[in-house]
Amino acid sequence: MTPKTILAVDDEEDILELVDYNLSKEGYDVVRVTSGEKALEVARSQKPMLILLDLMLPGLDGLDVCKRLKREPVTADIPIVMLTAKGEETDIVLGLELGAEDYITKPFSPKVLVARVRAVLRRGMKSEIDDKTPIVIEGIEIHPGRHEVSVGGKPVHLTFTEYEILYYLARRPGWVFTRYQIVEAVRGDDYAVTDRSVDVQIVGLRKKLGEHGHLIETVRGVGYKFCDS
Questions:
Q1: pLDDT tens by residue, 125-161
Q2: Cα–chain-centroid distance for residue 219?
Q3: Sign of the CA dihedral running 158, 160, 165, 166
Q4: Are residues 225 and 218 in contact, defined by beta-carbon separation less than 8 angstroms?
Q5: pLDDT, greater one: 25 or 92
Q6: What's the CA gap between 192 and 6, in Å, rounded?
Q7: Is 207 exposed, middle or buried (0-12, 13-18, 19+ CB in 10 A)?
Q8: What is the largest CA-CA distance in the chain?
Q9: Which overall architecture, per CATH, does domain 5-125 show?
Q10: How far apart are CA 37 and CA 221, in angstroms?
Q11: Which CATH number is 135-226 given?
Q12: How far is CA 172 from the centre of its chain?
């Protein structure tokens, strides 16, 4: 495979045609497969730069494929974008928790497809932010070394949990995180996880950020993200 290869996995030929045609116009090389088993084989042997993975596959479904790829060292770093049908919120949440980077809901437009692929690849190329490097986004400044936050140059006093949630989301603007992922990152996997516990913290955080609180966006049925615009 070339450095710009994308693996498209779907059992619907018209979807693969749409993906292939539009991504090829953007300079990507698209490899098309129609089963989860073949997807694993190609991903392991050729390691594409990104995988577009349909969740509703016959035999080995997309969630199983995602789980296996993220568990294997040779494929764990390959970004996965899930292709999902409307109403599959539970599967979207599970896929994100298994390690998928993003999702696209069918039916999707070519422009959305290209934009989401570019966004995921752009985020993937960014190096991990150093723990001592301040984050500055839309007037919000986060200083990890000092554990301080300011908005418009004025200090904002956050609780430990509020700060950790803000830092976690702001490190990867545009990425969607489930409530479970947020709690696991902030409190650890042995902490009692409830939707309410995260939602209450988000409400308080938004209030303290004032007019910038809208930057923490709710992704209905999934979780939260920090606005990347």
A1: 654 445 568 889 888 999 987 888 999 889 998 888 8
A2: 12
A3: positive
A4: no
A5: 25
A6: 38
A7: exposed
A8: 56
A9: 3-Layer(aba) Sandwich (3.40)
A10: 29
A11: 1.10.10.10
A12: 9
Query: What pLDDT sits at residue 191?
Result: 53
> pTM, whole model, 2 decimals?
0.68
Of 229, 123, 220, residue with least CA distance to 178:
220
Q: Which amino acid is at 5?
A: T
175-201 pLDDT, tens per residue?
888 888 888 777 655 455 466 778 888
Sheet strand arrangement including 216-219: 177-178, 223-226, 216-219
Domain ranges for the chain: 5-125, 135-226
For CA atoms 25, 29, 34, 40, give the dihedral sign.
Answer: negative
**Any idea which residue has 């749409």 for tokens?**
18
Neighbouring CB atoms inside 10 A of 225's CB total 19
How far is C-alpha 4 from the geometric centre of its chain's CA atoms?
20
pLDDT in tens, 56-97: 898 899 999 999 999 988 898 899 999 988 667 788 888 888
Contact, 85 vs 103, CB < 8 A?
no
Instruction: Report the pLDDT averaged over residues 23-47.
Output: 94
Q: What share of the chain is helix, strand, coil (3-state, %, to 5)?
A: 45, 20, 35
